[in-house]
């Protein structure tokens, strides 16, 4: 099983007045990591390229467990795996860490949908095969 790894620094814009990362930004960090993970698989997975083909990914569900706060200037590492892979959706599991210290656990379910109709689409077979390499059973 492979794991996507994404590095990110916490900037002033990510924090509240006390220098602590604002809670909604953990979801933004997780999305950055998932987007970069797809781009690592293929440049065909840019948002514009997918929209040109008439398909996009939408978030159907998300869950965040906050463990410790991230702070201004922290160097974060976001690890991403696929926990479940369906015909038209995937459940991603992500951990946001500062060094070895767990800060947050994120689960996000995304679905592939047709841009015009908003109806679910089956995953591209090549993408599904590539995502299987990152499949991890839940702990």
What descriptive keywords fit this protein?
139 residues; alpha+beta; five-stranded antiparallel sheet; 22% helix; 38% strand; globular
The structural domain count equals 1
Helix content: 10-25%
Tell me which CATH architecture applies here: Roll
Taking all residues together, what is the mean pLDDT? 94
The CATH topology is what? Thiol Ester Dehydrase, Chain A
CATH homolog superfamily: Hotdog Thioesterase
Distance between the termini: 14 Å
Rg on CA atoms, Å: 15 Å
The CATH class designation is: Alpha Beta
Main sheet: strand order: 1-3-4-5-2
DSSP helical segment count? 3
Inertia-based shape: globular
What is the chain-wise order of helices and strands?
A: EHHEEEEH
pLDDT < 50 stretches:
none
Beta strand %: 35-45%
The structure class reads alpha+beta
Can you tell me about this structure?
The protein has 139 residues and is α+β, with helices and mostly antiparallel strands. It is built from 3 helices and 5 strands. The model has no long low-confidence stretch (mean pLDDT 94). 22% of the residues lie in helices and 38% in strands. A hairpin with a 3-residue loop joins strand 3 (75-85) and strand 4. It has helices at 25-41, 47-52, 125-132; strands spanning 4-9, 55-66, 75-85, 89-98, 101-114. It is globular. The chain has one domain (4-132): Thiol Ester Dehydrase, Chain A, CATH 3.10.129. The chain has a 5-stranded antiparallel sheet with strand order 1-3-4-5-2.
